[in-house]
Amino acid sequence: MAVDEALARHRLEGEATLRIYRWVRPSLSFGRNQAVEGRYDPHALRSLGVEVVRRPTGGREVLHDRELTYAVVLPAGSPGSPRGIYRAVNGALLDALRALGVRGEIAAPAHRTPPPDAGACFGDPAAGEVVVQGRKLVGSAQLRMGRTLLQHGSLLLDRPSVDLGAVVSVGAAGSPRSGPLASGTTLRELGAGPVSFVEIASTVEAAVAATFGGRWRVAEALTPEEAATADELEPRYLDPLRTWRR
Amino acid sequence: MARIPDDLFYTEEHEYLKATDEEGVYQVGVTDYAQGELGDIVFLELPAAGDSFSHMETFGTIEAVKAVSDLYAPVSGEVVAVNDALEDDPSLVNSDPYGAGWMVRMRVSDPSELDALMSPDAYRELVGED
Fold this sequence. Notes:
The complex is a heterodimer.
Chain A: H1 2-9, E1 15-21, E2 27-30, H2 42-47, E3 51-54, E4 62-64, E5 67-75, H3 80-99, E6 105-106, E7 130-132, E8 135-145, E9 148-156, H4 197-212, E10 215-218, H5 224-238, H6 240-243
Parallel strand pairs in A: 1-10, 2-3
Antiparallel strand pairs in A: 1-5, 2-4, 5-9, 6-7, 7-8, 8-9
Helix pairs in contact in A: 1-5, 3-4
Chain B: E1 9-10, E2 15-19, E3 25-30, H1 32-38, E4 41-45, E5 52-53, E6 58-64, E7 67-72, E8 77-82, H2 85-88, H3 92-95, E9 104-108, H4 120-126
Antiparallel strand pairs in B: 1-2, 2-3, 3-9, 4-6, 5-8, 6-7, 8-9
């Protein structure tokens, strides 16, 4: 999360950045403003070996485990363009999925907008998200900082290695079916493969570059400035008081 | 078509300033165009009364369906009031951006900064509604 934010803080004029990564341990990320107090027991999560972090972006919780995570950093333009960028990035991801033999589509507008406290991200596809047969395959969220927009998201490769069903307290903040992966789907379930992480990553890279054109940098290594900012931001993302603040 | 009232100041970040009955105190919020482009507002993170900000410093965030955007102080000054009603009902920003959906009231510390803000006509041009 600190690296994604650092990439956004150091975007160069006329340049866009793509970062693709995966997670060392299963990790639960909360949305920037999501209320999670009473929904999860931090001790139970720790005993499962699940790390917890609060994202800089909006939306609801995501269990990151067997997934490909992408982060794109682009010029934001006006408030209109975040939605345009959302559609465009998801369009690029659809192209990448098609190249992998999966036919996805963009979710139609929902009747109501779920608040950030409404339960897991993969529970309900929001308008404009990538779904396959009505089930969400990619969950994404955005942060607009001045003239820069960060969008990051998770493309689910396989079911997670841990089951959070036993540690989520279901109450006002969610319904019983809204576990961290409720009703989502994965590339494995859709029969894509066998395909390696590296192949999927290069397919996503090619699709994003083809969609947006222009100057793209694939952030395989950070610049010294980005690394310094990421180091500076890291304590904030590791701070449990910030993670559990709501 | 977005409403752009004639009696307000505007910024390139799609915020507005509206004079209040108290001299030097202005109401700040996002424009009708901005709320329309952002979509359904689900959460606002606002400062506390008494906090001070310099020009273009981030004073809060606004979240609309997964997208969080920074809010920028359009002028330097002190926050003298915060619209607590938005905590329970952030959709007021969508339904009444220039009225019940106001965010903070700021006492402007350097009135000359008002001169750098956009007129209604300049803002109409920015959003392509001139």
